[in-house]
Amino acid sequence: MSEATARGSMGRRRFLGAAAGAGVAATTVGAVAWGRLTGETTGTVLASRGEPAPQFAVELPIPPTARPTSRKNGVDHFDVEQREASVEIIPGRKTTIWGYDGIFPGPTFTGRTGHKAVVRVLNSLPVPTSTHLHGGVTPPDSDGYPTDLVVPTKLCGQKLRGGSPGMSGHAMSGHAMHAPASDWHLSPGSKAYEYPLDQRAATLWYHDHRMDFSAPQVWRGLAGFFLVHDDEEERLPLPRGEKDVPLLLCDRSFEADGDFRYPAKDPTCTGEPGVHADYMDGVLGDVQLVNGAPWPVLDVAATRYRFRLLNGSNARRYRLALEPGPRQGVPFTQVGSDGGLLGRPQGLQDIPVSPGERYDVVVDFSGYPVGTEVTLVNTLGKDRMRQVMRFRVVRRERDDTHVPTRLSSTAGALDPSDAVHVRQFDFRRTGSEGAQAMWTVNGRPFSTSEVLAEPRLGTVERWRFTSDFHHPVHLHLAHFQVLTRDGKPPRAADAGWKDTVDVRPYEVVEVLARFAGHRGRYMLHCHNLEHEDMAMMANFRVV
Ligand code: C2O
Ligand code: CU
Ligand code: CU
Questions:
Q1: I want to staple 343 with a disulfide (CB 3.0 to 4.6 A). Which of 203, 354, 411, 529 is the partner?
Q2: For residue 6, is it within any domain?
């Protein structure tokens, strides 16, 4: 059954679920048993139709950089249009995408710490959208809340089911997510999102966050990079320019004619939300894309490169490695995490990346003879999904870059004694299999009007995440540091400031989160987008 979740094990799974709720000891036992049951991925593979897409047949595309349309009083103004477009992803076939500026990934926005950016998103799609800057320290009304929608002008006043314009009364959408009428905020045609960017240099990304429909709308292409730079980062002798490469990793499935395939109950995204019951654990594609291209190739010089790795997949997890590895030294030198530069670099043999996470790494190709083909692999993937992309070392070149032993003086470690509050959030499936089942936080499906925590602005809290499956837990606004995994010190790859953390089945992950920047309502949620759409979100309010 390759990578698909062992669906026959529901009885066992429920038993373990119950046991895990009973305490930490049971949780640990559950984790061991789980590893044998399902391996490392939660989700079900959706097979593509038609001729398989060729591997290593296309060049790695680099998304174009967005240019500001104006620059007034130190504020950069950008315009971007969400629209449908027909693009060639698999050679010789056409795919209809929903993209920012009609491309997938969308244009890469760049900003500077302390310099506000305003991005006006014009929605020309046939569906409402909400754009979230993931990792952004953003005021609540620009944060891309799921019911804060940009409604295409031609849909204004029309009634759609499932989290949509024109709703009245107490709406209950497809997966029992609650949103009273007063909580829908509709912007007709476009919305100007304000990003103060009062935050460290970091690899952020933006994507759709529409209530009930984030998973299918991101699958169709609504995602891109947003890079924040600052002086400290710019002074470092790290690879730059064309040797600073953003890599958006995601899996997709395709119809025979080249269109995306996705198991939506309503592929138009205007009716009933959600996926067919078999895919409720998460949708896994069987074609690996990097920057929107299947298993692409990048020609490299035998020098250092900086790669900004982003897992933009709906549900797929990666453990990235290089094959062959370098003859000496480690394959990856990590320089940054979700929240920016680490204090000091660290070597990693492989990199676990769950949906939503970013890893900023330097790879040194100087140890490879010219002519070597180096494959970036996902050791959690099977068959063709074990490969991600390929680097071809094509020339020698002078390299005056290096990775200094000190990267950042603003990476400061939090101390457990800084925490003024301890809270627990349990990520779990409730209800029976099929239509009644849903994904919950502390036993509750998402409701816009319910607030699970009220941290104070400027304080640090210790948050404990427990789970029954793989749940990549993401916080809006607040950045955090991982404190423990199952009561033990975190793994090396947990280092630095983060906004998303990989929580594995029956694992207990504790983080120290700092609530800074803005007061207001924000969310924490699972970044498996199918789980997210099926109610695994919750609000916290910074007071
Ligand atoms: Cu990248 Cu609320 O998500
Ligand atoms: Cu986010
Ligand atoms: Cu989840």
A1: 411
A2: no
